[in-house]
Write a structure and sequence with these properties.
With 143 residues, this protein is mainly α. The protein has one domain (12-136): Ankyrin repeat-containing domain (Serine Threonine Protein Phosphatase 5, Tetratricopeptide repeat, Alpha Horseshoe). It has helices at 11-30, 33-41, 56-62, 66-74, 89-96, 99-107, 119-125, 129-136. It comes from Brachybacterium fresconis.
């Protein structure tokens, strides 16, 4: 089948997908790990993004939900997936000043030098001294 002959989703199917995405992204914002992780474990996309390109992991990180960030990363959530503005989850955390979430992202392999501005640049701009110290311990990724 080519793209022109594949069945197109119905309006009801489109609405169901939108409802699922809304539920997942709201669960990420509010820290509702039970709901979000259950959906991911059932096959929902872990790197689902909102209209601004913010992934569930980005939203969980930005709103300070460290354990949820850890669990999303363990399920394949991309800790460096930038939003449409080029900001990484770690840069969002540097802006907010949430040290615990910064540690969680770094432990999961987040690169403080990715994104525009990078997490390190963001932390410096907002004078997040504890986060700067953490980020400066992480060398730039090769490649």
């Amino acid at each position: 089948m080519n793209e022109d002959t594949q069945p197109q989703p119905t309006a009801a199917e489109d609405e169901a997908v939108i409802a699922l995405a809304t539920t997942m992204l709201e669960a990420a914002r509010s820290g509702d790990a039970a709901t979000l992780l259950s959906l991911v474990d059932q096959g929902a996309p872990v790197n689902l993004r909102d209209g601004g390109g913010n992934s569930a992991l980005m939203l969980a990180a930005y709103h300070g939900h460290s354990e949820l960030v850890r669990e999303l990363a363990a399920r394949g959530g991309d800790v460096d997936l930038a939003n449409d503005r080029g900001q990484s989850p770690l840069a969002g955390v540097a802006f907010k000043g949430t040290v615990e979430v910064a540690r969680t992202l770094l432990a999961a392999g987040a690169d403080p030098h990715r994104g525009t501005p990078s997490a390190l640049e963001t932390a410096r701009y907002f004078e997040r001294t504890e986060i700067i110290a953490l980020l400066e311990q992480t060398p730039p990724a090769e490649g």
